Amino acid sequence: MVNGTINNLNSAAASAQTDRRSAYNAAAARATTHTFAGDNNGQVFAPGVHATGSAFALTGTMTLDGGGDSNAVFIFNINAALTTGAASRVHLINGAQSNRVFWRVSGAATTGADSSFSGTILAEGAITMGARSSLNGRALSGGTVTLADNDVRTTPTGGTGTTGGTGTTGGTGTTGGTGTTGGGVTAAGMLFPGAPTGVAGTAGDGFAVVSWAPPVNDGGSPLTEYTVTSSPGGFTTTTAAGETQAAMFGLANGVPYTFRVVAHNAEMTSAPSEATSPLTPFAGLLAGAAGEGIAWWLIPLAVTLASALVALFSVLAMRRSRENSAA
Questions:
Q1: What's the rounded Cα separation, in Å, for the pair 79 and 24?
Q2: Beta strand 207-213 pairing with 245-249
Q3: Does 279 map to a domain?
Q4: Which pLDDT score, from 0 to 100, does residue 155 have?
Q5: Could you report the average pLDDT of every consecutive run of 10 residues in the chain (327 residues)?
Q6: Same-domain status, 246 and 263
């Protein structure tokens, strides 16, 4: 039995895949706070970003301890496959919530028969649910999701919604088959805002001005701020959520820079935007002006005014020349 709406090879399915990719990239971009490897039976994990370069294995019970914080977030970046054994279990305690647990898997993900798993699986490869296994979360794959008499339930963020419900034996579908969620939270983007788009900029004397468009998806929580980062140098500047451009000073003239922007909400940080085209600061007409306290937004106005004055003087000179000739 499936509770909810099945979307297959339509615009909703395509949007779900876009959101899955956004969430996948956002998880991958998070700084690692803890590394692990091997069988995780008996292991206890605190909130944070946990990473492994080897395959994830679970033959018994692993515990996620929220430490009394119901907003605690657990991210597992698994740069290989994920496999759980028969009757294995992911146990949540002390406020840990399944809708704040994310498993980014670069390979395939497989749960064992009669096992119990919690959290959102964001897999590049196929996801296969073992017979009679349960998932308190979502199974979002870049390939296919295969169910076998499974119980799939979701604790939604930001509202009440429906998910794929109980799977049927041997059923196979795309991530588009996932049901809808409430409260403006997209099927895959939960907590993670999308990346800003349309990032572009201009360069001046020792500075650059970068602009962007807000992400389509805020991750179910209002955006709080943006961070712009340069390359090279790794210089950063932060602006409030209502702003869509920022100036970065202290750049070296003659050096080409690219810039990326990330969006923040109260819960998470987006994946970085696409980089700008290379921008090269230069010593120009108003050399030193930025360092003397002139607001960066006055510089284009000053350049325009200077051009107008040059044109005016040219016209006056031509008129005087004609008057002298007539005399």
A1: 12
A2: antiparallel
A3: yes
A4: 66
A5: 71 80 86 94 95 96 94 93 96 93 95 96 95 93 90 62 37 36 36 87 92 87 93 94 92 94 87 92 59 48 63 70 66
A6: yes
Range of the domain at 324: 298-327
Q: Tell me if 242 sits within 8 A of 226, measured CB to CB.
A: no
235 located within any domain: yes
In this structure, is residue 204 part of a structural domain?
Answer: yes
Distance CA 267, CA 137 (A): 18
Please report, for the domain that includes residue 292, its CATH number.
2.60.40.10
Cα within 13 Å of Cα(140), Cβ side: 31
Q: Is 3 inside a domain boundary?
A: no
- Domain final position from 177, 207, 224: 177
- On whether the CB atoms of residues 198 and 260 are closer than 8 A, the answer is no
For β-strands 145-147 and 134-141, DSSP reports them as: unpaired
Query: What DSSP string runs through 43-81?
Result: -EE-SEEEEESS-EEESSEEEEE-TT-TT--EEEEESS-
| Torsion over CA: 195, 196, 200, 206 (sign) | negative
Question: Can you tell me whether residue 69 is helix, strand or coil?
Answer: coil
Tell me if the bond preceding 272 is cis, omega within 30° of 0. no
In the numeric block, which tokens belong to residue 196?
């800003």
Say yes or no: 157 and 214 in one domain: no
Domain total of the chain: 3
